[in-house]
Design goal:
With about 250 residues, the chain is an alpha/beta fold. About 40% of the residues lie in helices and about 20% in strands. The chain folds into two domains: about 5-130, no CATH class; about 135-250, 3-Layer(aba) Sandwich (Rossmann fold).
């Protein structure tokens, strides 16, 4: 995620992405820790959300921001276009977006000769877009749960590795120590609480930040999670925004 920018910089960047037919997702983080995405497909803004707001509702919220951070993630080669055509209330258009900010809608280029210009633009943006300096280990025996956690973290710019069990996590930690662990509570072999206990008793790992994740949501489970020497505790199913806020909060501390 790049350094803090003004709203003007953000709008200018979106205009450049569209002008050079750069499809992808723009991840947004506001100075109020709000989080959202603007998605561009076929050089058209097709979806916009920020916090609880969707589509046109987002624009007044963006205008309130004194500063924000954003990072462009190009669409993967071969990605299906128009996948957000039915984005419901999150739908947006180039005209709606730029008209709101009193800026002319950018003209999209149809020339194949723009490849070099696109490369130059990408390099220019990369020079001011500093990725999040953070390595995160996601530990969960469910592949679905691991991907649900890894996907938004990778999109945000983190370096993410995965472990399918507490045993594998401990083996990986012996080779390389991440900046943060996202640890599932219920796993076969040794559960999350046991992993936490082992790490906190080891001098090498006792200060390693840990976010405990569980599908249990009873009061007793929450109390146990908060008392487990972990840095945060979130309950499945969680929203991407909830996970990112927990991660950013822990890493800031």
């Amino acid at each position: 995620m790049q350094y803090k920018q003004t709203l003007k910089h953000f709008i200018e960047a979106i205009a450049e992405y569209i002008s050079f037919n750069m499809d992808g997702t723009v991840v947004i983080m506001g100075n109020d820790d709000g989080w959202g995405k603007l998605i561009i497909e076929n050089a058209e803004i097709v979806s916009l959300n920020y916090g609880i707001f969707r589509g046109m509702q987002v624009l007044p919220e963006l205008k309130k921001l004194e500063e924000l951070r954003f990072m462009f993630r190009p669409a993967k080669p071969g990605a299906v276009a128009n996948s957000y055509a039915n984005a419901g209330s999150a739908r947006m258009s180039n005209e709606d977006f730029f008209k709101y900010f009193d800026i002319n809608t950018p003209i999209k280029s149809n020339s194949s000769d723009q490849l070099g210009m696109v490369t130059d633009l990408t390099d220019k943006l990369s020079s001011v877009t500093k990725p999040v300096q953070g390595r995160i280990l996601v530990v969960d025996d469910s592949i679905i749960a691991r991907k649900a956690a890894s996907a938004p973290l990778l999109e945000y710019g983190f370096d993410v590795t995965e472990a399918i069990s507490g045993f594998e996590a401990l083996d990986m930690l012996d080779k390389e120590i991440p900046d943060l662990i996202i640890l599932d509570l219920i796993m076969p072999g040794i559960d999350g609480y046991k992993v936490v206990d082992l790490l906190k008793k080891n001098e090498r790992f006792k200060s390693l930040p840990i976010i405990l994740v569980t599908s249990k949501d009873s009061l007793m489970d929450k109390m146990k999670g908060k008392m487990s020497s972990t840095d945060a505790y979130i309950t499945k199913p969680y929203k991407e925004e909830t996970l990112l806020k927990a991660v950013l909060s822990v890493l800031k501390n």
